[in-house]
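Hi P.,

Sorry for the delay on this. The queue was packed all week, but I finally got your sequence through. Input first:
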Amino acid sequence: MRPLSFIRQVLRPATLGLALLGVSSLVTVTAQTTAPVPASAASVLPPSHLVMGQKTQNRDVPIHQVDAKPLHHRPGSLQQQYDPRSGVTPKMRSKNRSGKYQKAMVMGHDMQCMTMEHGKESSKTPPVGSLPRSDGAAPGDYASYGVTLKLDENPLLAKVQLDTLETVHSSRGVNTQQWDGRFWVGHDLNKLWIRSEGTRSQNRLEEGDIEALWGHAISPFWDGMVGIRHDLGIGPARNWAALGVQGIAPYEFEFAATLYAGSAGRSAFRLITSQDWLFTQRLILTPELEFNAYGHADPQRDLGAGIANVSMSLRLRYEFSRKFAPYIGYSWVRTLGGTAGMARAAGRPVTDRLILAGVRVWF
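Then the structure:
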């Protein structure tokens, strides 16, 4: 056999094998570079891995000229390396793309599981003995949670209030003392009221009265009153049955109207109204109007039939606290009708002007 023929026979299989090996490698590389990237994986990959070429100084660079050497194989510290093609640092790029994609999928699965578990837990009924989430949104009353409230919704309360405790200087040059106060004790709807007012002069009680009334709330701002009244002062004592209302009228007028019925056909009516005018939260001016009328004359107490007297007053107080407020004021008093005639016959004036100074307290 010729030597040249022998060499051809030996090299032909080797050349064919190398050719086949090269073709298979080229097909593998082409398949890897042209395979579509999943949308979920593309969202976690840098933009440099999704293009076949990149712009470099307005020129297209073929992919075979791009340095495809992995970033983690380059020399130097990973924190100091920077990729000028994609504009990211190793901190922004994962070493293992598939690992980052798998991690994102695992995290999404965990979040879905946590949401489902949280929904199951929130749908569970709270255990007995636990407090409700809020007063209005609780599925049951407090007893269903084992909670016992000890708060008294309608406690017994009491209050003493002296609206006026004052010294009075009249235009006649006479100094007197006056009071007007009230005391009540009870619950929200029902109370016992004690009311009293009067005048003291020259160490003696000139006139006054005291009332004991039961009050019942007939509306949010009004109380119905029923009770008795006893007159004090000069002349014979008089006793009356009392029926009336008291409360707050529109525009915050304090209002009290009471009808009285006594022995021997006697009758009387009293109306008192006032309003607070606030200059500041502490400086308050209070105008007040009061008048008294009688159905029959009572000469023993110097009272005539009809409207007996009318008084209008202004009191300016300063509240150092809500419970203590000194004041000064002015009052105009006029007697009318048969009462004025009796005053003239006795030599007393029918009109009087008063300077007031006193204190308003409650506790």
